[in-house]
Specification:
Layout lengths: L1 H16 L6 H9 L20 E4 L2 E3 L2 H11 L6 E5 L5 H10 L4 E6 L2 H14 L4 E5 L12 E6 L8 H6 E12 L4 E7 L5 E8 L13
Length: 216
């Protein structure tokens, strides 16, 4: 087990040297929430390879470098309420929960019940009390807990789902891979009277399926 934590430290140092982990908050979250606890048992030796890994049902746990990029763009702060669309393994939700602290909350929506179950089991391993995994259509958001300080979408969408924008607080930030099924641009939207959108490179994510995403 000690070897995994050493590998995690090496990964974090590599991401820092590449300029992808910039803040102390993201660095500490990566160190405190080890990725090997969130991958299928048969892939545990690959947990600290900087690559996406399959977790079943056609879904993946994102590559560490992409997670680092998205977390830095989110500008998370203590006490914030976050909505994640696409729970996956639960790793990203736990990283965010570590950053927002016990006074913050992370709600993560997953459309595939089996994947949601996998995420819940992983969250329970760490005893995280401020992460809530919900089964549903993530493109509809989660109005029960709106508004949100931050929203992150971890699947590719052909457009920005209107319900997500509606559920974001004024001044809040939304991160989303925008494009078709084969190529997307990572965008950052800051909600204002006229939303401010910036682009942050090309990426590749599994498709966002739902009423305001891809239909299948």
């Amino acid at each position: 087990m000690e070897d995994f934590f050493e590998r995690n430290k090496c990964l974090v140092e590599a991401l820092k040297k590449e300029g992808l982990i910039k803040s102390r908050a993201v660095e500490q979250a990566f160190l405190n929430i080890p990725r090997h606890l969130f991958v299928p048992e048969e892939l545990i030796d690959e947990a600290y390879v900087d690559s996406p890994l399959p977790i079943g049902s056609g879904q993946t746990i994102s590559a560490p470098h992409m997670v680092a990029i998205m977390l830095e763009l989110l500008e998370l702060k203590r006490g914030q309420k976050v909505l994640e669309v696409g729970a996956g393994s639960g790793w990203n939700a736990c990283l965010m929960a570590e950053i927002v602290g016990s006074s913050g909350k992370v709600y993560s929506i997953e459309r595939i019940p089996e994947i949601a179950h996998f995420a819940r089991k992983n969250v329970e391993k760490l005893g995280m009390k401020n992460v809530f995994i919900v089964v549903g259509d993530g493109t509809l958001g989660y109005p029960e807990e709106m508004p949100y300080d931050r929203i992150i979408v971890t699947a590719a969408s052909p457009k920005i789902p209107k319900p997500l924008l509606d559920q974001l607080k004024g001044g809040g930030i939304l991160i989303l891979p925008l494009g078709d099924r084969y190529c997307q641009k990572l965008i950052k939207l800051k909600k204002d009277r006229k939303p401010k959108i910036s682009e942050h490179g090309y990426c590749f994510f599994v498709p966002l399926i739902g009423k305001f995403g891809f239909t299948s």
